[in-house]
Design the sequence.
């Protein structure tokens, strides 16, 4: 590699990150509204002889992409999740992988709560009702839903986002249960400071006892289809399922069946399988009465997106300079 290193960025991320990269490198940005194809990414990396790649969770970064430029030393994904990056292939090639942990948790927890409250208190339906000029009078049975306060919240995966979501339950005086591969005493202590007594239970118990089930596990082999028909059948018929993790954690067909059969009350999804969810997808027939969907906007606050842009820039710089990444996905996945 000679001259100024080049970085290819697969979408227009916030200016603060692009400016930082431009201070040191030649930066080429895909400015399309939709993601570039994998072929396009491969050809751009090769053409630019790129040293760095900044990608999104919608880009599949596999061996073919990683081999596209002989000078590629770092891939930085504008997300905390890195299931779209083949970490083993990157590690084998000595290519560092950066991601953006630690800054999305509170913002994503806010969104989990937005969905939870929306599903319980039927605000999307309420808005549609008013907008359609159907609001004729105060109705004793109009758009009733379950109480949120004093209810039981079940957190599947008490990590960063799961804990931030649980913390917010304190104001609603809820009972909190959580499940995962092992109890998390430090997380329980953190929640105890907010007056919450979070109890570790097995997943079946959590599903049976929770009024609200909120999913916060990463997408890995063991969590794909974690919530399928057997799990949905364990939930109560009024229970509300919230998914802000990854679409594939829930079996979409099973959810469709459960909503159609009234096995669960409602679902609020920020992530879907497939993603994007087309408006003519069968699941959508349950909206808005039993289903509310947002387009994967968990981390979409201006402040958080700016911080994420700075973090991918910092990871890219470190990778190109041959320094340890401030946030390495390979390290965080326990692979080094
Ligand atoms: P985290 O801190 O790593 O927490 C993940 C939790 O899941 C851990 O407590 C872990 O608990 C549990 N877990 C891990 N592997 C598991 C497995 N194989 N089976 C069952 N449980 C498992 O992650 P986070 O920062 O909270 O983020 C969680 C996920 O949210 C991310 O991976 C990402 O996919 C998604 N996310 C979505 C958005 C959005 O825009 N909607 C934004 C940010 C993140 P145990 O060790 O006890 O199992």
Sequence:
């Amino acid at each position: 590699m000679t001259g100024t290193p080049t970085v290819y960025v697969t979408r227009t991320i916030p200016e603060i990150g692009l400016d930082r990269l431009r201070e040191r490198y030649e930066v080429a940005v895909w400015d399309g509204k939709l993601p570039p194809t994998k072929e396009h990414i491969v050809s751009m990396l090769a053409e630019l002889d790129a040293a760095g790649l900044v990608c999104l969770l919608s880009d599949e970064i596999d061996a073919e992409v990683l081999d596209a430029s002989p000078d590629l030393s770092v891939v930085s994904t504008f997300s905390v999740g890195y299931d779209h990056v083949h970490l083993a292939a990157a590690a084998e090639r000595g290519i560092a992988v950066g991601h953006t942990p630690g800054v999305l948790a509170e913002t994503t927890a806010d969104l989990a709560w937005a969905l939870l409250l929306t599903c319980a208190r039927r605000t999307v339906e309420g808005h549609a009702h008013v907008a359609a000029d159907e609001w004729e009078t105060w109705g004793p049975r109009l758009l009733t839903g379950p109480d949120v306060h004093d209810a039981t919240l079940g957190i599947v995966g008490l990590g960063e986002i799961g804990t931030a979501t649980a913390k917010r339950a304190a104001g609603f005086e809820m009972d909190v249960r959580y499940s995962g591969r092992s109890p998390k005493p430090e997380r329980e202590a953190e929640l105890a400071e907010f007056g919450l007594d979070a109890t570790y239970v097995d997943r079946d118990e959590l599903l049976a006892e929770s009024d609200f089930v909120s999913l916060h596990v990463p997408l890995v082999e063991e969590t794909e289809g974690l919530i399928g028909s057997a799990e949905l059948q364990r939930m109560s018929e009024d229970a509300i399922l919230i998914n802000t993790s990854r679409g594939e954690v829930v079996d979409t067909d099973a959810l469709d069946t459960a909503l159609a059969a009234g096995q669960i009350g409602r679902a609020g999804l920020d992530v879907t399988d497939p993603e994007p969810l087309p408006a003519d997808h069968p699941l959508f027939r349950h909206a808005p009465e039993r289903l509310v969907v947002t387009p994967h906007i968990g981390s979409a606050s201006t402040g958080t997106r700016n911080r994420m842009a700075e973090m991918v820039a910092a990871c890219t710089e470190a990778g190109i300079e041959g320094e340890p990444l401030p946030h390495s996905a390979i390290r965080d996945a326990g692979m080094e």
